[in-house]
Specification:
The protein has 5 helices and 9 strands; from the N terminus they run βααβββαβαβαβββ. By secondary structure, the chain is α+β, with helices and mostly antiparallel strands. Strand 3 and strand 4 form a beta hairpin. The longest helix is centred in the middle third of the chain and has 13 residues. The radius of gyration is 14 Å and the shape is globular.
Length: 147
């Protein structure tokens, strides 16, 4: 079951930090975003934070699946849920990610297509190097799919 979390969002920080490893960056969007949690038997398996960015764009700011439940399709389930939830409310669902061999193919398989990039986002906004799958992340790469 996926539900909207309206109170106590910071209790989900351990899971949110899997997808965005700097807490002050999460603080920039957590309060203004909608936090969804996928639970099974009372256990949180995945979370997703979505913000409204204006101009008909909703953005997935954070998508995290508990390590023991990764690679089981739960990330896709969360994205499909968000897509359905925001359908008709805007023009695009977008996601920004590092140029990583793990995340880019995942979003492409989920129907997202390249939109644009923000050069040096990670080097300017994070207080330490972000490395994923052996790749030093520098630019934020944005992908979109229509709502």
């Amino acid at each position: 079951m996926i539900e909207l979390v309206e109170e106590g969002k910071r209790a989900y920080l351990p899971l949110l930090l899997l997808a965005d490893e700097q807490e002050d960056m999460i603080e920039r969007y957590l309060d203004r975003g909608a936090l969804y949690a996928l639970r099974e038997n009372g256990v949180v398996l995945a979370v997703c934070v979505v913000t409204e960015e204006g101009g008909g764009v909703f953005e997935v700011k954070n998508l995290a699946v508990a390590p023991e439940h990764q690679r089981k399709g739960l990330g896709r389930v969360m994205l499909d849920f968000v897509q359905a939830r925001y359908r008709g409310r805007g023009r695009f669902l977008q996601v920004g990610t590092g140029d990583s061999p793990l995340t880019v193919p995942f979003y492409q398989r989920c129907g997202f297509v390249y939109s644009h990039r923000v050069p040096d986002f990670f080097t300017k906004h994070y207080n330490h190097p972000i490395v994923e799958a052996g790749v030093l992340l520098k630019d934020m790469v944005y992908f979109r799919r229509p709502l």
